Amino acid sequence: MKPLFLVAFILVFASCAMMQSIVKSTFPYTTTVTIPQTDKPGEEHSATAMATSFDQDFRKDGNNGAKVSEVRMVSAKLESRDPSDFNIGNLTMVKVYMAKADGTDEVLVASRTDITAGVGNTMVLDIDNSSFLDQHVRQTQVKIRMVYKLRNAIQVSPSLHIILGLSAYPNR
Question: CA quadruple 114, 151, 89, 48: dihedral positive or negative?
């Protein structure tokens, strides 16, 4: 009898708005961008890629997306993937934008303009949570654009992994 009650409780709880806001807020959007070694230092460059999430479906048509709203950025991190020891301090600034899959409605979601030369292979970015991202994450895909400036010429084309944590609130 206890297992049946537990299963029923989980099914009811999993369908409620509070649970969906927790689930939707748990899995970050991630993408990897590559910086060409031919980019010149001191100039602004950009790289784009599509971002994915384990539970990326915030659409309202069947994945409980209608139960959440007020989606905002809560964390952002940049990590060197290939080579894993690439020093992110080779960048002087980074700005990360999120847009719908077609590139429209681009919004600044994270940045860092004071990158120190010896920061290492991972860095937390300053978030910009002044915009709701509901319409962006209700798309089947999200486009990420990273704008950056190089401090010095680089000898490799590093791949940098962007991790964007979102928060969603239950609809009332």
Answer: positive
Distance of CA 116 to the CA centre of its chain: 22
Question: The tokens 């989606």 sit on which residue?
Answer: 71
Name the region of 34 (left: φ>0; alpha: ψ -120 to 50; beta: rest): beta
Please name which of 77, 75, 76, 70 lies closest in space to residue 133, comparing C-alpha atoms.
70
- For residue 46, the number of C-alpha atoms closer than 13 Å in the C-beta half-sphere is 11
Tens of pLDDT along 31-79? Answer: 999 999 999 999 999 999 998 876 555 544 554 455 566 778 899 999 9
CB atoms within 10 A of CB 13: 10
Out of 15-24, 36-45, 78-87, 163-172, least confident range: 15-24
- What is the DSSP code string of 79-112? EEEESTT--GGGEEEEEEEEEETTS-S-EEEEEE
Q: How far apart are CA 100 and CA 54, in angstroms?
A: 18
Residue 80 to residue 121: CA distance in whole angstroms: 5
Report yes or no on whether pTM surpasses 0.90: no
